Amino acid sequence: MRLATWAVPVALLIAAAPARAQGLSEIETEDLRLLYRNPSQAYLAPYAGRCFENSMRFQRWLFGYVPSQRVAVLLNDFSDAGNASATAIPHDVLLVGTSPLDSAFETITPNERLNFIMNHELVHIVTVDKAARRDRFFRALFGGKVTPVAEDPESVLYYFLTSTAKGSRCS
After folding, report:
1. Do residues 96 and 74 lie in contact, with contact meaning Cβ atoms separated by under 8 Å?
2. What are the counts of helices (DSSP H) followed by strands (DSSP E) for the chain?
3. HSE toward the beta carbon, residue 148, CA cutoff 13 A
4. Which residues of the chain register pLDDT less than 50?
5. Residue 57's pLDDT is what?
6. Domains of the chain
7. Which long-range contacts (CB under 8 A, 24 or more apart) does 129-134 make?
8. What is the pLDDT of residue 168?
9. φ/ψ of residue 32, rounded to 5
10. Cα distances (angstroms) measured from residue 116 to each of 39, 42, 122
11. What is the pLDDT of residue 21?
């Protein structure tokens, strides 16, 4: 009985350990942590890393940008059409779909698609992540960027002002 009283919690703790991401490899530089599926995207990862570094060098030159943290880039092939998205809150993350772009964007040559995507998405990260003096103060005070919450008062106000329910300003 004594064995069971401590063996069960220990077994649960061991089972709750985080699982390793299977099949993901990474390339790291000073500004980049690139995650990709190995071996299916191994041919593309070095080129994607170079495109990112070229774009980052340009953002530094044009905007005087100094990253607050390493940008995580995940190459994925989860859909039939290529796409990308970026966020800088609370962490700098780029999600890049490696599938061919939709035919609406057919004027972009396939070999320059990653270069275009990295330049475009990094501008989003730069505009949100580049901190003014006041931002740097509050980031130091709160230990980094503050994560927005669903109960944000501005979204409640926006809902109130735009709702078509009875008694709202729009009805």
Report:
1. yes
2. 5, 5
3. 8
4. 19, 168-171
5. 97
6. 20-130 (3.30.2010.30), 133-171 (no CATH)
7. 129/65, 129/67, 129/68, 129/88, 129/92, 130/63, 130/65, 131/68
8. 47
9. -135, 140
10. 24, 20, 10
11. 55
pTM of the full structure: 0.71
Buried b (16+ CB within 10 A) or exposed e, 21-41: eeeeeebeeebbbbbbbeeeb
Residue-level length of the chain = 171
Do residues 32 and 53 touch, judged by C-beta distance below 8 A?
yes
Q: What is the pLDDT of residue 71?
A: 95
State the Cα–Cα distance between residues 171 and 166, nearest whole angstrom: 6
Question: Residue 142 has what pLDDT?
Answer: 85
pLDDT by residue (tens digit) across 129-165?
888 888 889 888 988 887 766 666 565 566 666 655 5
Q: In what order do the strands lie in the sheet with 24-28?
A: 24-28, 32-37, 71-76, 93-97, 84-87
